[in-house]
Amino acid sequence: MSQIINPPSEIKLFPIRGCILPPGEHLPLNVFEPRYLNMVDDALAGDSFIGVIQPTPGGQSDKPALEQVGGAGRIVSHQETSDGRYLMVLEGVMRFAIEEELDVRKPYRVARADYRPFTQDLVEAHLTPMIEVAGLLERLHAYFDLVGIETDWPALEQAPLSLVINKTAMAAPFDPAAKQRLLEASSIPQRAELLDSLMQDSLSQASSGSAG
Predict the structure, then answer these.
(1) What's the predicted TM-score (pTM) here?
(2) Per residue in 126-136, pLDDT tens?
């Protein structure tokens, strides 16, 4: 990770609704809109970093309002298709807060990023969070069955818990506001607690719905 722990102070922004990029995770993307193809070209020619951030209600259709916190990711693989798209994978490095959006002569948006609130992102992936695992995995089973997520359970149960929590936060079909809360959780244990609460809410709603 030594190559990718210094994200840039000015970061290119890729607004994607319902999508988050926690540190250490990998996000496959299919890029086809011209301004974002331009962004990828510029990233590949420079620092390879792109900031994934959710749009929020407000602003203009071509320039929506944005959440204040996103995930800085580095392009770790890319392929250009015959029809001009990019298939690429971003690896999350650390979260950032938008300090200010910059006025740049680019078709995409760029912001000055503040990484100071998230320095723990660089070490937390290597720590083992103190979480009650058995109950969490039991609810993961029930929730995945509910929403139709298929997984390799023996592999998942052997994976580091931080990896399971972050991957579930990315993949689960929670609404964008819940996804943002998961991204902004101050620590892996807090993200696990919030994830558990969201899953229990979904299971409870499904149970009361079937009972009715």
Answers:
(1) 0.90
(2) 555 566 777 88
